[in-house]
Amino acid sequence: MAEELLLLGACEQARLIETRAISPLELVRGALDRIERYDGRLRAYITLCAEQALAQARAAEAEISAGRYRGPLHGLPFGVKDQLHAAGVRTTLGSRATGAGVEGDEACCIARLKRAGAILLGKENLHEFGKGGTQDFPFGQPRNPWNPNYTPAGSSSGSGIAPAAGFSSFSLGEDTGGSVRSPAAADGIVGLRPTFGRVSRHGGVMYGWTADTIGPLARRVEDVALVLGAIAGHDPSDPLSTDAPIPDYRAALTPSLHGLRLGVVREMAFPPGVHPDVRAALERALEVLRRLGAQIEEVSAPLAQYAVPLQLLTSDVDIAAMMLEKWLRPHWQALDVGTRQRLGAAALVPAAVYARANRARVLVRREVLAACARHDALLAPTSLNPPGPIDAVRETVTSRQDMQQKVILRRIGTYPFSMANVPALAGPMGFSQAGLPLSLQIAAKPFAETTVLRVAHAYECYTEWHTRHPDLEKTLAAAT
To answer: Which of 33, 129, 173, 313 could form a disulfide with 357 if both were Cys (CB 3.0 to 4.6 A apart)?
Structure first.
């Protein structure tokens, strides 16, 4: 299959399948061929379900030919972060400690996609246990498709690489503090962290009980809206999932922003240390949004600067507490040094500090929600720096400066919205002078995904960043 077809948006591919211009079998074969050709270097996948995917593609083709078209997801290939259980496929959690894999019920979101006719290609690479900071990846170092010497970000690394590289129509990732949005930003695609509770987490290994969310990554905003509509909704197996009505997310997409009031969060957009390429791209993006009819103003959320340490003192402690007896103690030596350092430290946080940090989290959340109440959406860069060289951005913290650059500054763009548990989307905003993707982040009040998607779609319609794709043949050859 031609590269151009594999890099179309998922909704565009769906329209071609519906009209029988292409078949699900052609699309799946094309994706598998592309994975075989390039993924030995990019390492997006841990486990491929090639034969199973081909069989499902043949079945989808037969159904469509017989007039039983299930809808726009029918026949589209997708991958999932290897933190989500899928029937008949091992779950490694990106760890040596899990051996042959861990077992669990198939994730509700995967089951819903399958019922809609989507085809699972495989499980995607990730930071160990989906928590970031991995130094040595057991299943190969994930690499940025725009330049394999640079980071694809994490922790849903493979879930960002796959759609960007044309390996799948879309992916599912998991986001605690930015693990969907950061890979989307680094790889030049769209990634959405839904409102906490909007998507069932049943069937996922979710140690961050009050922060983890499952969200889609794809090449277009409309694709993300399509996938969210399929996976959203109450699930009796997840007591924290909501029964709030599910709107038609795609119907909310319009090219105009007239009447919308958007707030640029000063502390997240212009803190000391923001890269000049990011700042310049954000200024250009704001001008585009103004031309689309939006009213834009700066808003201050001074407590946002504390979101990173507060989340490390709370969510990391929650995760360490749940992992302590099952993984940290019995498998200490098998765990990556990054996991040991991060979660080992979290396990030592005193209860009094944890309790005070949780109270402080409420103050940050209140401040973000107040800003959301005054504005239809909030804006900030997803990352304050372009993707960096893999060796340079490893979280080896040996000084106060390392802590500021490698931990705080890297996360300040995403953690405040995670702490507030509001929907937040990362989408392409241009490229750095080195040719690496930059990303605009859009957030809104709880369950206002329609607004987030509307703003992102309008901006996408007025810009051409989403039309650019990495030339894998050229970039991989240059990096060899």
So the answer is: 313
What are the φ and ψ backbone dihedral angles of 58, each rounded to 5 degrees? -65, -40
pLDDT tens track for 342-354 = 999 999 999 999 9
Token readout for 213 is 């969310």
Tokens at 35, concatenated: 């994975």
Pairing of strands 190-193, 213-218: antiparallel
What is the C-alpha separation between 92 and 102, in angstroms, rounded? 6
| Residues marked as catalytic | 81, 155, 179
Helix axes of 221-231 and 10-18: crossing angle, nearest 10 degrees: 80
Rounded alpha-carbon distances, angstroms, from residue 216 to 80, 174, 257, 276, 350: 9, 9, 24, 29, 36
Q: Are 116 and 71 in contact (CB under 8 A)?
A: yes
Integer Cα distance of 199 and 188 in angstroms: 24
The pLDDT value given to residue 35: 98
By C-alpha distance, which of 81, 163, 182 is closest to 126? 81
Residue 459, SS3? helix
Tokens of 212: 């983890």
DSSP per-residue codes, 4-73 = HHHTS-HHHHHHHHHTTSS-HHHHHHHHHHHHHHHHHHH--EEEE-HHHHHHHHHHHHHHHHTT----TT
Angle subtended at Cα 173 by Cα 149 and Cα 111, rounded to the nearest 5 degrees = 140
Report the chain's C-alpha Rg in angstroms.
21
What does the chain come to in residues?
480
Residues with pLDDT less than 50, the chain: none
CA dist 194 and 268 (Å) reads: 19
Is the full-model pTM beyond 0.90?
yes
Strand partners, 102: 91
Burial class (CB in 10 A: 0-12, 13-18, 19+), 251: exposed
Closest listed residue to residue 206, CA positions, set 180, 175, 185, 181 = 175
Q: Which of 142, 216, 220, 222 is nearest to 186 (CA)?
A: 142
**Whole-number Å distance between alpha carbons of 9 and 246:** 23
pLDDT single digits (tens) 406-417: 677 778 999 999
CATH 3.10.310.10 fits 11-479, yes or no: no
Question: Is the distance from CB of 52 to CB of 64 less than 8 angstroms?
Answer: no
User: pLDDT tens digit string along 298-340?
Assistant: 999 999 989 999 999 999 999 999 999 999 999 999 999 999 9
Cβ proximity of 363 and 370 under 8 Å: no
Q: How far apart are the C-alpha atoms of 406 and 428, rounded to whole Å?
A: 22
Angle, nearest 10°, between helix axes 24-42 and 157-165?
A: 120
Pairing of strands 119-124, 77-81: parallel
Helix (H, G, I), strand (E, B) or coil at 204: strand
